């Protein structure tokens, strides 16, 4: 780790001598982390999508490093976001499931004491901002401004019931910091314009920025602007209405990301900005998403539910077209960005620093064991279901009521042929999973009410 910091520091010192922008003089890159919602593994043209056009996201994958073996930390929203912002497995910070408005259907409480990525960035001299979807709490102490973000302009809640009215169960969760606001327009356009405005305001700032841009697209309800839907239907001919809507919503999202990238270029900040792109889980098949060749989708532990597109662009550091085969997860961005920023991690985390492999493309992939879990009500009965991957072996279940199944992902990428339970890897992975369950069992995932003192 120290050698990495030395090499990064030397590089930034050489940049500062050029005297190009305030951020470069500060010796650290800006960071733009784009997280989209429910994007299908096959719903980018650079991921093999044949009926979809995503030129702006495709450029990011072409200009930087594609993480070819990348997983979201969970099959649904809140847990993956908790992992991203803490570097921990989500059940280790109190978010094993989806945080919702109604207490009876709420399956997580973001641990107030968990150290967050924006807090770490601030220690390294960064301005921190979140634009878009938060989904880790609706009230104090779990609002963005209380969890490390200097600036918040976005949506506190989970999904929107309508992309145009921005309500959830009748509640307005749109905020400018702590102030309730009621913007007009399509949510994707709103978040894009806010990100563009934020970037424009950073041109003369003396500090580098960390901007977490969290779109709620293409999460259902699938509501693309009419002109985008008509364009897709005209171009694709026999495409179904459901599929056309999903494609149009993603293409509209791609255009918004293009405007954000253009804003970086216009402000002169693009060359000194690291850009990360990924999704919080796999595509929702009932909504017309495509996970390409992968089996399953959102809410499932099959590859289609947890394997997601991911890339990082770092001008002058990462060669275009680079590919990492390292088994990676959303939570790995926490230690990686801390290493880049020079913010030493001294507390316990579960994520792995990807920076050594990013800087040295010849470094072999490191073996690791990773866990997936989700707690949910309704048909899941308030119980958890799990998966664990180690090497090429993956042990999984898709509900708490079905038996665990073992797959060899390398030999059986479509997860069609479960291996025998008497094989050694089955027992080994089952035991390792039991130990993770034992550790996470000590973490409360509901707000603990103080007893009445009277």
Task: Describe the 3D structure.
With 454 residues, this protein is an alpha/beta fold. It folds into 2 domains: 358 residues, 3-Layer(aba) Sandwich (Alkaline Phosphatase, subunit A), CATH 3.40.720; 72 residues, Arylsulfatase, C-terminal domain (2-Layer Sandwich). It is built from 12 helices and 18 strands. Strands 9-8-5-4-10-1-11-12-2-13 form a 10-stranded mixed sheet, sandwiched between helices. Strands 15-16-17-18 form a 4-stranded antiparallel sheet, with helices on one face. A two-stranded parallel sheet has the order 3-14. Helix 6 runs parallel beside helix 8 and helix 7 crosses helix 8. The radius of gyration is 21 Å and the shape is globular. It starts with a helix and ends in a 14-residue tail after the last helix. The N terminus is likely disordered.
Question: Can you give keywords for this protein?
Answer:
454 residues, alpha/beta, Alkaline Phosphatase, subunit A, Arylsulfatase, C-terminal domain, 10-stranded mixed sheet, 4-stranded antiparallel sheet, 12 helices, 18 strands, 29% helix, globular, disordered N terminus
